[in-house]
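Onboarding guide, step 5: your first structure request.
Type a short instruction followed by the sequence, for example:

Predict the 3D structure of this protein.
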Amino acid sequence: MPDPTDRRILRQMLADPSASNAQLAERCGVTSASLWRRLERLREAGILGGVQARINWRALGWEVEVSMRFTLDKTDPRAFDDFIAALREVPEITEIQSFLGSVDWRATVIARDMAHWQQIYRDRILTLPHLAELDALMLISTIKDSGELAL
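The system replies with structure tokens like these:
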């Protein structure tokens, strides 16, 4: 379990993901060597999964983001495998999640504009195998996008 120094390191990483290890060590009151050892322990424990780049797709011209919810016709034993294989082939999908409950899968789809979204929807989404129901929720604005919790 992380100690208070580990938690301080994690808080500082969340606050400024672009900070160098030297900056992070200084802000956390530890040496660079101690920081490196602590980060290794956090990785080995599965607490720290790695550093990721977060791309602002809108800034790159991908103006439309849609959260799709899928419920499958489960009468075919291969429904889940066939569906997920086809879903992975859609290049505009940036995230896929599976659920228990009335919704089986959720995917995030991005498109350059509404015409592009309509093309993806007609040509790629509606042709997915074993669809029983689908729902599209178009993103209007993001109010909170943070992995931060009290550490």
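Each response can be followed by summary notes, for example: The longest helix spans residues 32-44.
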